User: Fold these one by one.
Assistant:
Number 1:
Amino acid sequence: MELNSKTPPGPLANKWEKAKASYKLVNPSNKRKYDIIVVGAGLAGGAAAATLGELGYNVKCFVYHDSPRRAHSIAAQGGINAAKNYRNDGDSIYRLFYDTIKGGDYRAREANVYRLAELSVDIIDQAVAQGVPFAREYGGSLDNRSFGGVQVSRTFYARGQTGQQLLLGAFQALERQIALGSVKMYPRHEMLDLVVVDGHAKGIITRNLATGRVESHAADAVVLGTGGYANVFYLSTNAKASNTTAIWRAHRRGATFANPCYTQIHPTCIPQSGDFQSKLTLMSESLRNDGRIWVPKSKGDTRGPKQIPESERDYFLERKYPSFGNLAPRDIASRASKEVCDEGRGVGASGRGVYLDFADAISRLGRPTIEERYGNLFEMYHDITAEDPYEIPMRIYPAPHYTMGGLWVDYNLMSNVPGLYVIGEANFSDHGANRLGASALMQGLADGYFVLPVSIGDYLAGQFGKKVDAGRPEFAAATAEVQDRVSRLLGAKGTRTVDSFHRELGGIMWDYCGMERDAEGLRKARTMVRELREKYWREVKVLGEGEEPNQSLEKAGRVADFFELADLMCLDALQREESAGGHFRTEYQTADGEAQRDDDKFRYVAAWEFTGEKSEPRLHKEPLEYEEVKLATRSYK
Amino acid sequence: MTWVGNFYRSAIGKKAVMAVTGVILFGWIFLHMVGNLKLYLGPEHLNEYAHWLQTLGSPAVPNKGMLWISRIVLLVCVVFHIHSAVALTIVNRKARPVGYRDRDYLAATYAARTMRWGGVIILLFVIYHLLHLTTGQAHRDFIENDPYHNVVSGFQVWWVAAFYIIANLALGFHLFHGLWSMFNSLGLTHARFNPWRRNFATAFAIIITAANISFPLAVLTGIVR
Amino acid sequence: MNLTIHVWRQKSREAKGGFVAYKAENISPDASFLEMLDVVNESLIEKGEESIHFEHDCREGICGSCGMMINGVAHGSRGKAMATCQLHMRHFKEGDEVWVEPWRARAFPIIKDLIVDRSGLDTIIQAGGFISVNTGSAPEANMIPIPKPVQELSMDAAACIQCGACVAQCPNGAAQLFTSAKVSHLGLLPQGQPERYERVVRMVEVMEEMFGSCTMFGECEAVCPKAISIDFIARMNRDFIAAKFKSQKEISVGV
């Protein structure tokens, strides 16, 4: 299998224009004759479904939530980047492109990232027109703030809920199309398999979560906007239901999975407080604009934060990265925090935490300004920890947050399975080995509003008259497989709950495939994951029936797929014998502990092909060509 | 004019009608209370005021003309006020066919929660009040055109006075919520004046109730005889 | 800490439901209410009983999935309003008896246990809760300046997470706070002006087909996790009344 990125030739700045000009078009009056399945209705899926509906296609949109407005995009707090240069601080499309490539530690595809930067400005226009209430200056123009890894102010925000506001924009556009009849919504439907007919993605199998019925749906193309897989760690900032099943099932049907080991650990989360903990809560990166991160200089200092004098504090990010300071990129900030905690200088009862202190900012700007900027985040922290961050510094610790890896897609966002498109966090495309803050919203919306609705026409134009209906044997076969899995899970009748397995799996992944990895640990983790997986199928206890609402069964299916993915993540981390972005191999670091890439050997996308449950996945490499950017060692010092 | 029916068919329309009719009824109640204060000035003043009411607008309109016009307006208001309340109550009951085992109120005042029962008490009271002091059928010593006598002799019966007091307390609660709620029903929200809405409702509810209750109390205690 | 929880169990929409008492043992005061239910569910499954079904997802108070009546109050918080997932066990006392019921409204039929069907709220959005602008046709974002106070007020309304607590807590089962938040979010912004009056009429009409009406109890505001003000209801009423006094032609040209 050869992975062709189909990147258009020519200068970087003209590639997207060129691609659009080369796409075959679908006659407007024929568009309604095409059925498109969109799975997921977050920023990527919701925007895509709405836009495809506006274009006149016949869209079926599937979500496992009760409403498309609940997708996990909603939880994004801080903001969305766009190269508007409203601040006149030297920003440009090129700079956003460059920052993103560099932030991703030179492991992303140049052309995709450049297109993302170009489209970022259109996203803001679109969102404002939809009524997204972005923060404003007193003069009425849009306000910006700064985010990690950059030195310009290009982040647009809507209080602490930019994700919700952008999602509501897409959701409202989607609801409008539903009302107009161009989109049919299938809430409480979980995709459990992809149906491939003659090599093309032509449908999906879903389970109706309200009734338990397994259903087949056929279409001319399938779009997956189903998000990331950080919940493989059990404790992450992802919503509880976020899972890998949709993309994993597509992977098993032939779609290659790219860079699964690139996972992002976010530096500013509320530390875990006990075994009961079901998820971790993110504190927006925007807090690092005004908060200063520190730990005591000496080990085992048990004094309260206010008792520790200035001279005995170590503002380690400011010390190590003077030019970016507290706004160092996520991977770097996270690892630095882990390091000081490993040295025994961590704070809080567990010793796994660092202070994020606003005392300076409050005395400089006054409490009202801080309240206006971060009020709801401070409240959230106060509610969870019962500590008032205006008085005592916040305690934060890194937590799994985002996954840069995902299904491999070409420049047009199509996977290697013709007709299967993957957008947003579910694909691997734009963030390389590390994502910069406020870029996920940007990518989801760029894919959903502007790229996919145009690029999919190129495929569909060639599919006219090749309609497939759900009566084909491929659908029956896939349905039988889904039902078989359901009955195997229900039939295991073991002794352990799904959550207990998930927690154990998460522990293994965090310990061996988390912030720091090494070959020995990864090999060990693979064995442990495989053993646990076998145990899972024997000993899991799932009560209830298949043909009814059954939350244990839903979880059981998702965790089963996490097991398979976990193994692939370890394998991918193992083969990548370098450190890059969120993937840090302790064997490969510079003298001062920074990530050491090996551009000669690993400047490629690792795309894995599924070869069967019993055999090892096959690695395909898409070399990354850098025409514009000169590869350099990332430095934020 | 279909828009009128259309408007009234919607719940917000009904609430607006309820608010407007409520305001009219409130205005009338307020004037009624102010006029009745003449009770404290003595029989001549009250009876003269009653006579003035009957001849108001004369000779442009026949005797009692204005009185009847206002009675018709009030009756229409009462009908719509009650009709909208009943219709909305039915809608609201249907909106939650199965109730909670145990529910708690965080913000709803006692007044807000008793609007419907309060309304029923007020309606019964108004009927009795008309029979008692306007037409006299429910008064054992009724003298036509001598309201002062009718009031004083009427309130000398303790249970009649008690009923008036209870009914006016119900009216007070009804006004306390109604006068506040009507601003919202009519969409009257304004950052500067919003805090005044509660004060307005509280003040008028207290003034009207206190004055109305003072009449039977004054008679019972012998201040007015 | 140890508590007794009485939870409404109902197998399906048609089935008859009832309260079942469970012991919640060794609960950390730092756990959230949902994490307490997780612990109870783990012990139920171990005993061979089906877990209590409830909706939840982000567990940080923004997705709006979770929601249940806890001791007769939507989301269970009597102080600062918050979503159920943000309610921590430190708000309860050792030995407390806690009653947990699903949202109840005709428009919210029960699917299972504490899960209800809230799709009626989406139906209200479909009636007009949007600005009709196709992708690609947007003007430059800074073309229309929006005064900061207007944006702030619009944002106050836009903060709604569509959890349905307002309906659940309202003695009338009304969805006015939800609908008014949506109407005001768009109606306050310059971009929302062209459809302002048509929008409010369409959304209100659909809302009234399913939900009760407002009697200004103020209960919705008290339980709203985003503290959305009932002043938005007045704003919606004003727009609706104004729309009804306009001619169709005036409405269609947006004046």
Number 2:
Amino acid sequence: MSDSSIDDLLRTAEISCQAAIKAGAEFADSFVERGRDLSVSVEKNAVDSTNARTHASISVRAFMSGGTGWWSTSTNSEEAAKEAGRRAAELAKAAEPDPDFVSLVSPEPYPDVPGIYDEKIAGLSAKEVASWITDNIDSALDTASDALVSGDAEAAWQEAALANSLGVTAVQRTTHASVDVQVVVKRNGDVGSYYEWDSARRLGDLEPGELGAKAAAEAQRYLKSRPIRTATLPVVFGPLASRGIFLGLCSAASAEDVQRKRSFLVGRNGEAIASEQVTLVDDPLVPGGLSSSAFDGDGFPHRRLTLVDRGVLKTYLHSNYTAKKSGEPNTGHATRMGIAPTNVQPTPGRKSAADIIGEVEEGIYVALGYPAPDTTSGQVSALVDAGFKIEKGELTYPLEKTMVAGHALEILKAIDAISSDYREEPGVILPTARVRSMRVASGEE
Amino acid sequence: MNDDTIREQIERVRDEAAQKDFEFAEVRYAASAHSGLMLQDGRADRAGAGRRAGLGVRVLRGGAWGFASTESPHAADWLSCLGDAADMSTVSASRQEEPVVLADAPAVLDEIHTSFDIDPETIPFERKLAAVRGYEEASAQAAGERVANLMTGYNDARQLEIVCNTRGTMISSRTVRTLVWHAITAQDGSVRQRSREIRAGQAGFELVEQTPAQELSVKAADRAVALLSAPPAPAGKFPAIFHPSIAGLLVHEALGHNAEADHVLAGQSILEGKLGEKVAAECINVVDDSGLPGSWGSYRYDSEGTPGRRRAIIENGVLKGFLHSLETAGKMGVEPTGSARADGSAHRPLVRMSNTMILPGEAALDELISDIDMGLLLRAGQWGYVWCEKGQYTCHAGEGVMIRDGQLAERVRDVSVSGMVLETLANALGASRDFELEMAGNCGKNGQSMPVNGGGPYVKVREIVVGGQG
């Protein structure tokens, strides 16, 4: 990769915008990318397949009286760029006007976001990527000799350019590396399993070494799972499960959903929607963060945002369109197709995760599961994929056929502790969170 | 590139592969063109279209797979792709338990296209918009002042897949798919409920003309409005009757993924070692059938060039077979079932379902309900997933209806349910003669998304865990 190749992408983006304007569009923007992924998949302790994927694309949006035309294609030649611009303009003319559309993003300086591209990842061989996952087969077997390991390792690079007809030009190179491992142990007709992962933008942030051992140790803890009786109980969500609650809340804070009246957070801006324990920051500028970048899908500069401050919803997540429609500040959360949070960071609390569990007389601990609310109704009804019964402050036995339910606003307001210690992935903070009481359905008589 | 040029380039890569020390090589070209529009709250302000095309090359060398793909249209890059795939197979060979041996399959030469009545490409934008607007207006009328948001979408896609391999197979498959959907958010004060309906098939624009608003948008609107005043579902263990859409979800998520032979061979299926054993109640018969005309999940040939067909998974409660690719059939020493499907050119074929269903039984719905003192009828299947290795699954129902004293009673809100696959199937108490296959959707596996369909009769189960709040 060289500066000239990314300059070529930017030129292609500009050509497609110019073609859209020439074809009659009032505004246009274009996102052009190319990249390569290497991935290795493992099944039953052996490599199943090794894959190399080379990709490229152009995606053009053209606007006519606010009506939007989209055209996407999987080649990024100059000829394809001109066609993409022309086609997008034709579609924009066919679409009906949208009086809420004001204009596109204007040029602004972008922040420097270091650590989202690493030459070492871009230059990896498939053999090196394979070692991340095959080493984990060995570490899992060292921990449990009957472990059945499956999973994937992946390394990817992408270079991308975004341009619009108002003069915005933005380029970025990114890399991504990930490893996920699932371990299954089968003993005497019983099955225990667990899943672990690691993900990074820089090779130095990737720590794949112990995932197999960790997953194998956990898988054995989930043998002899059983249901409990249906009850209303305290529920402690571990680092990987609490993420569902917080990301679900961020999704419901999409200004597009709010303006269209299909979010349970309509009319809640400025209100207490969660307990004072809950502060959520969305920070796309964290060096090396998994969702870090200098600009959003509209080409608007990224910035740090406090979404929830001690339980109070401070803003909705905006794109250029929703911000201009409502006259509110743009928060820079556009994707090319909608609105999404970036690096979500709950502020840690004062108690340790061990103390949060230790204070529960009777309850459950959710290790894996995705208890995100329906963004419209706010209802939560989710399976505990992996979890434990808590008795007298101790994790006792693993759970089976156990579900948690409630309304998001009641659940958020019932969060009575967020842990001071947390799992940290690049840019992302994953604490333990406790909900004072929730409906827990299960299968025991 | 025209079709002849594409085929020539594919054959050139295949012929080059045939000169190498590969046991097998497959060159697969996939191209698609799509168009769509969305109408929201009275305005069709978004229209989109696009094209993708690329080449995927898979080689088997020394019993190990390598796969590479490119979206470049250039012949030189296609040949490089072959070299990449060979390099990848070397990496796979470094950690092999046993070499891959493919099942025998005869070479096939064929050129097919799915049938449709009205080519979507011939339909002007205005006519598509008029149809979509009709759905929206009917929904708005049905929901009246309760409407908070209406979204209606139309999409059509034209796909070409060319499968060419070193066994001599050369198949060109052209497919046209059309989809319409409607989502409504209904509101009463601060209470909001959303409901969604989809109709999709291997069809042209006739799918829209044959889908009345009553079956799509009005159905969604009536449900959303009714749920506004419905209480939450109860929590706990209850007897239940699954609507055909939930039966379709259950058979796909809970059973179907476990019947994919790659999961079985990986030691990750609850059905491992149970072939020929009773795994379900006598009333449960399950098939996966890729040959249903017009169904969203159908295809004539899979992505390895094996003809698709109807495959029995469970007959009268007994496990009869799994879904196979050339590789899994080779490992298990059985016939391939034509179940290897790939999502475009950028992915290798995996074992996948097509149209998966529980077959109808003899009972009437009333008979199934009549002896339940306290239970639920679960309707409007939405999504689900399974942890194959344990057999623990969950399905989400868009609504429920309480059953009290053998009668349908009040409606309850959307809720997820959970169970263990084999327990649920063994606890099935009956299947209705009423049957629906209307769960068209896209199934995700290992990052690939494939069109599938699911369905069944009303199925009664002794108990299921309901994740409600009541």
